[in-house]
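Posting this for the archive.
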Amino acid sequence: MSANNAIYLASKSPRRKELLTQIAIDFELIDIDVDESLQDGEEAAVYVRRLASEKAQAGLLNSDGLRPVLGADTIVVLGDKILGKPRDKNDAIAMLLSLSNGSHQVMTAIAVATSRGVNSDVIITDVTFREISPDEALAYWLTKEPVDKAGGYGIQGHGGKFVKNINGSYFAVVGLPLMETQLLLEKMTTTA
């Protein structure tokens, strides 16, 4: 996208900033504040889509409204349980051990808000972990990498050593599915 077609990014994630730069999308960060509480009875895919949409809409309200706003959110889902960012060391270790030697889903939602409305998508990737020992989980916590990561791991860092297999978008697991983001931005920025 050219500078004339730059966007606002409603995210504090350094990974999302890196990924947008990687695909040469010009962006400016916009500060937002969105309540990320799960609503009663809300399913995981509905929850993550709602958060991405609310972030994009909040960004639009805080901007000049002249450029599209990209919002995104990523969650890890094990069975019917959503694993957010770990509260502390014990929570992070418990998360990793619950993911050990099994499969889980990573859901990343992207949303683009413009004056014409909001469009969103949810990308679901299946991730399988090898067995992780309690000592490995503790050593991983000590790297400080899990602190701000949904599910307590980052596939793009040290946490990648636990990943046996993925089925879906690697970049969605990192935090921003590149192809889908590019397509959604193109769809929302073309004039009718």
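The chain has one domain: 3-189. The CA atoms of residues 144 and 186 lie 36 Å apart.
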